[in-house]
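Worked example 3 (structure in, sequence out).
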């Protein structure tokens, strides 16, 4: 498997790693373009960040949106996304027609490994650090999907053609350590050696990178909340405190902007997949994806102003669909249900999710960071900060991103179902609001929170194989079973429904 991944990775960097944002968004690449060995770090780095973005906003976003309780399909779209609606593990892992979460994850990890090796050889600690932080991001993602997987033996090509697996908890710890190392490397980079415009995430801002890394670590620590080794949590939080940069705060969303263009193949991927083509034609996903009735009701029950910036009403009401509904029912037809709202449906103004064809791609929103901090503060993991203040700031940041006027916050926050002070279970209150904020932006985190805490009480798919059957992980893909089956088989039965990842207790 890893020999293949290394070959694919080299090809991928050749195709993506060109000198300008416009070029590395181009899918029609000159076959005589530079090869990996003579590409500069400033060419490879933005290509890798774009790869991460496309990975997150593609298949991972769809998995999260369906399994996190946000999306369903119209009656006309009953035959779309059947594998996700029915939790069909074998189909999802299929070599040809499945969802390449494992393959694309490791391929992108290899991109960063090649950057890391070149940066180490050139003595450029900024790029070494950035590559380590992003590798930490991807290893954590893969554990969340698969649990045990290769870490130390990974990304070594023919030197380790059948890499040894390590348990998910160990990989989590090693990934967190990798991020810590990455932050230290970046901060030790001599002035003037940082990335510039090729850093399409933070523009070479080392402090922002450190905050990003710390926030990823906080997310990973909270993922362990139900199985946490408190000593480990305390030690890691002390490292973050000692480092001193803190976490992403208000106005500090981590978003990739590689210079999207209003040209086919170069638009923001969320827009191009789920809203409009470059010609302005609605995509198939826009036509047949709809909010679930559960999602609509969660916003309606709180008089949530985000509802009107997210969706288009049908008449005067907002109408959703039932997730996994196998029946053709007129009340869930396209014309009878609420589509996403974008500029075309909003008098040319930006809407909650769809703002423009060239909008930045969110990797980690300021609102998510603030909700993470609020939960950590409520658990007593962070001191000197107010969980209530962080919670309210997170809602305000979500309002800002979803184009809700700031003046709407006071009345919204005064409601019994929103007020932090009025909540008997404050962790539940934080996760409820986090769920409302992550909708179709970082939906995967909503599914992760559901597995971790069971909040909110998301209805199951009507095509679930059993009433209580839920997707708890992915099966190792066929590509891995064909090339590294001895190691994969040591992990036991990896049925998509029955087994949990290590932090899901």
């Amino acid at each position: 498997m890893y020999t293949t991944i290394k070959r694919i990775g080299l090809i991928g960097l050749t195709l993506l790693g060109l000198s300008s944002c416009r070029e590395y968004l181009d899918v029609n690449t000159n076959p005589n373009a530079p090869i990996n060995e003579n590409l500069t770090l400033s060419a490879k780095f933005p290509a890798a960040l774009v790869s991460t973005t496309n990975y997150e906003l593609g298949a991972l976003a769809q998995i999260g949106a369906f399994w996190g309780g946000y999306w369903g399909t119209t009656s006309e779209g009953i035959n779309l996304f059947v594998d996700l609606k029915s939790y069909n593990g074998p189909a999802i892992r299929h070599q040809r027609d499945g969802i390449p979460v494992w393959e694309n994850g490791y391929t992108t990890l290899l991109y960063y490994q090649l950057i890391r090796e070149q940066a180490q050889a050139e003595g450029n600690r900024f790029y070494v650090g950035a590559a380590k932080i992003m590798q930490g991001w991807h290893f954590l993602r893969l554990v969340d999907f698969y649990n045990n997987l290769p870490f130390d033996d990974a990304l070594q090509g023919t030197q380790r053609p059948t890499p040894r697996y390590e348990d998910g908890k160990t990989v989590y710890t090693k990934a967190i350590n990798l991020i810590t190392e990455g932050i230290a490397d970046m901060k030790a980079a001599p002035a003037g050696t940082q990335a510039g415009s090729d850093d399409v995430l933070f523009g070479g801002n080392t402090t922002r990178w450190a905050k990003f890394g710390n926030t990823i670590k906080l997310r990973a620590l909270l993922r362990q909340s139900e199985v946490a080794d408190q000593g480990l949590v305390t030690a890691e939080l002390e490292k973050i405190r000692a480092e001193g940069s803190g976490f992403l705060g208000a106005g500090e969303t981590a978003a990739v902007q590689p210079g999207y263009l209003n040209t086919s193949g170069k638009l923001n991927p969320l827009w191009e997949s789920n809203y409009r083509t470059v010609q302005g034609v609605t995509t198939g996903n826009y036509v047949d994806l709809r909010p679930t009735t559960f999602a609509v009701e969660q916003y309606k029950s709180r008089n949530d102003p985000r509802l009107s910036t997210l969706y288009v009403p049908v008449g005067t009401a907002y109408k959703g669909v039932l997730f996994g509904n196998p029946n053709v029912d007129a009340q869930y037809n396209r014309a009878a249900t609420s589509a996403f709202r974008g500029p075309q449906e909003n008098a040319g103004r930006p809407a909650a999710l769809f703002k423009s064809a060239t909008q930045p791609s969110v990797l980690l929103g300021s609102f998510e960071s603030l909700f993470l901090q609020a939960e950590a503060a409520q658990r007593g993991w962070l001191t000197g900060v107010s969980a209530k203040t962080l919670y309210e700031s997170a809602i305000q940041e979500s309002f800002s991103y979803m184009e809700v006027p700031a003046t709407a916050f006071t009345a919204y926050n005064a409601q019994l179902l929103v007020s932090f002070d009025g909540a008997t279970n404050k962790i539940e209150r934080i996760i409820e609001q986090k769920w409302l904020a992550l909708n179709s932006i970082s939906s995967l985190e909503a599914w992760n929170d559901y597995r971790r805490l069971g909040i909110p009480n998301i209805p199951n798919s009507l095509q679930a194989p059993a009433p209580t059957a839920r997707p708890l992980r992915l099966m190792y893909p066929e590509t891995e079973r064909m090339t590294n089956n001895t190691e994969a088989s040591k992990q036991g039965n990896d049925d998509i429904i029955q087994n949990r990842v290590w932090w899901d207790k």
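Notes: Residues 41-67 form the longest helix (27 residues). The radius of gyration is 22 Å.
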